[in-house]
Automatic annotation (TrEMBL):
Belongs to the peptidase M17 family. One of its GO terms (cellular component) is cytoplasm. Residues 240-247 form the Cytosol aminopeptidase domain. Keywords: Aminopeptidase, Hydrolase, Protease. PROSITE patterns: CYTOSOL_AP. It comes from the Eukaryota. One of its GO terms (molecular function) is manganese ion binding. CDD domains: Peptidase_M17. This is Cytosol aminopeptidase domain-containing protein. It comes from Oncorhynchus tshawytscha. Pfam families: Peptidase_M17. The keyword Hydrolase applies. GO terms for biological process: proteolysis.
Length: 366
């Protein structure tokens, strides 16, 4: 960060003036992201530092960059917080409170769907994951109407919201399990994006869906070999209870189609197999739409968040449909081999092409 600084008499830095360097939006975003820390539960907290634009740069660009950074930090805050402090209900309340200022203008509507509603929707896959926990599930539904007078179909965002993932009966190894408090990263990203869209007053209509629950082992939890029924009537053999994200997303994707969206974008910490495939260099993207892939790729070039298209071959679909007891298996026939690809093939069974949009594939084997 370039520029001068002001200090108090005790020499504690509390204020930074940032030189916009002719790109005040990027400077602001970087400053806000760089200053983030989660120390809410510590007695001794770090000194809070604020920033303001100094020197060259556009003030409106700076303000926009601050909102970009704050939106990302909201997602980081939700993912960093302990799972006993961010339960499904607390997650929903946090987002509802952040959107409250915009709800007064009828721009945003937050609906926290209860377990009773989830049961009425016959979301058997979602319910099967949540039943192992003492925490009740929440289906969070957000509506941002940036074009209320526009008949444009909404962009629909779906985020995986497992607020803690123990693996269920297929228990994860203890090492690193604490990081599974962030297994709702997809929901955190989706909801924070909508909060940011409202703050920026973007001229677009967006609907966000976040199925929220914990995946815990108990006498009520899914057992390997159990069969559950998703909202669209398809039966699923649950051979690995740690492949739970695709179960809750299956029902959310089915429900998403009721809004006739122009496109559905699903974000999820779905499987470690993606990290094995790409590491931290890029985000893996599976899509049955060349048009949507082109939009995502263009956006990644602008933001620097690189994406890489992954295959949706029938080869992977056959691995989840070749099932002993049900229509689908929640894990691929060859276990970890191509795990990210079989996870995407599973979710594809709950998605249909939006009306009015031409979908094309990558090849005859798609």
């Amino acid at each position: 960060i370039a520029g001068g600084c002001r200090v108090l008499q005790n020499h504690v830095l509390t204020h930074i003036e940032v030189d916009g360097c002719n790109d005040s939006q990027s400077a602001a975003e970087g400053a806000v992201l760089g200053l983030f820390t989660y120390d809410d539960l510590k007695t001794k907290k770090k000194t809070r530092v604020t920033t303001q634009l100094h020197g060259s740069g556009c003030v409106s660009g700076w303000e926009k960059g601050v909102l970009y950074g704050e939106g990302q930090n909201l997602a980081r805050y939700l993912m960093e917080a302990p799972a006993n402090h961010v339960t499904p209900s607390v997650f929903a309340d946090t987002i509802t409170n952040r959107l409250a200022p915009y709800a007064d203008h009828c721009v945003c509507v937050c609906v926290c769907r209860s377990q009773e509603w989830i049961e009425e929707q016959q979301m058997g896959a979602f319910l099967s994951v949540s039943k192992g926990s003492e925490e009740p599930p929440v289906f969070l539904e957000l509506h941002y109407n940036g074009c209320p007078d526009n008949a444009q179909c909404p962009l629909l965002l779906v985020g995986k919201g497992i607020t803690f993932d123990s693996g269920g009966i297929s228990l994860k190894p203890p090492s690193g399990m604490d990081a599974m408090r962030a297994d709702m990263g997809g929901a955190a990203t989706v909801c924070s994006a909508i909060v940011t869209a409202a703050a920026l007053n973007l001229p677009i209509n967006i609907i966000g869906l976040a199925p929220l629950c914990e995946n815990m082992p108990s006498g009520k939890a899914n057992k390997p070999g159990d069969v559950v029924t998703a909202k669209n009537g398809k039966t699923i053999q649950v051979d690995n209870t740690d492949a739970e994200g695709r179960l809750i997303l299956a029902d959310a994707l089915c429900y998403a189609h009721s809004f006739n969206p122009r496109a559905i974008v699903n974000a999820a910490t779905l499987t470690g197999a993606m990290d094995v495939a790409l590491g931290s260099a890029a985000t893996g993207v599976f899509t049955n739409s060349d048009w949507l892939w082109e939009q995502l790729h263009k956006a990644s070039v602008v933001t620097g968040d690189r994406v890489w298209r992954m295959p949706l071959f029938q080869h992977y679909t056959r691995q989840v449909t070749d099932c002993q007891l049900a229509d689908l298996n929640n894990v691929g026939k060859y276990s970890r081999s191509g795990g990210a690809c079989t996870a995407a093939a599973f979710l594809r069974e709950f998605v249909t092409a939006p009306i009015g949009r031409t979908w094309t594939s990558q090849g005859d084997d798609q």
